[in-house]
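Box 3.1 A note on notation
Throughout this textbook, protein chains are presented in two layers. The first layer is the amino acid sequence; the second is a token string describing backbone geometry. Keep the layers aligned when reading.
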Amino acid sequence: MSDQPKPAVAPRAATAILIACGVLCAALAMGLRQSFGLFLAPMTAAHAWSASGFAFAIALQVLLNGVAQPLCGQVADRIGGRTVIMGGAVLYTLGLIGMASTSDLGLFTFFAGLLLGVAVSAAGMPVVIASLTRLLPESQRGRAVGLGTAGTSFGQFLVVPLAGFGIGGFGWEMTLWLMAAAALLMIPLALPLNDKPAPKAAATTEETAREALSRAFRTPSFWFLFSGFFVCGLHVSFLSVHLPGFVHSCGLPVAVGAGAISLIGLFNVIGSLGAGELAQRWRRRELLVAIYALRGVVMAVFMMLPKTTTTVLAFSAVMGLLWLSTVPPTVALVARNFGTRWLATIFGLVFLGHQIGGFTGAFLGGVILDRTGSYDLMWTIGILAAAFAALVHLPVKDPAPAAPAARPARA
């Protein structure tokens, strides 16, 4: 298979600009997305909507993000990530304008749920890091993916507080309009991500998308990675949605729960950068086994400790290091096993597993709390899931980099 486009070692300044633009693009896309929860109270009060109606639109967005990701990935693999990200930025802008302009809950669901669900997929982290992986040489990919993943947390820290300040100072409508204008910044940021595949030579035989997907579906390593990323999503969504409530149920102030989520995001920057560096030096399979095993140990120890402000914040800091540190080695393994030609498509399908796990973690946590009155069973499930994820990565194939003109090794 011709693994196009073949990365060339760019001048250092050009490489730095490429990585910086990719990181900022991912940061902006995630930061805007993570801000939507701030609008629940003011918008439901202004329009007399139910909280569940607003929440359904956002939940629909998350679910559609997972479903649309492999489709956006395949388009990016065919025409290049730059064009897809720019299109996503336009959809992002239209969705935010629609949120600001409508007072009808059905239309709001269309803009916030359907339109922005596709926009987040087109302009989000998977497409960005797939483009960076294709454009950079093997020696720089792990670091770039780590930076791109860390950028999502950087965006959360930068954009979410600014959105909160805007709502308090200018009102929710003006803030949505300003966010729509900010979304357009992703268009110039995407300009360096020019990974459009080179035209095929007449005598060149290139693997088609259908052939690549068929090969992935027949490969056990794909399903191992999919299953592991499901567990990652389950952990991330359970803690994001339910950790503040769990902390409050332990008799601690609400501010401790908010601080816990903030600390997770802060330490995720460190964890993602560290995982990107380690993915270039260690075998990626063993790195994933260690990350998931450590998650289980950290959760088990936390459950045995008294719940104080100190233990909650210490747990949050350590979990932050392990939060999205799974992304760089997972992307590297997908690229190693299946090549970079259809990377956005195949990683998009692995990412779908993450989003299904995310839906499961958020929903199951609520069901267990309603049925049992506590989160104890959910914590146990999270610990067992971590052990499963560590074990399921042991048989993943971690081949050496293929020669530039070679067909990717079959797992």
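The radius of gyration is 21 Å. Residues 138-170 form the longest helix (33 residues).
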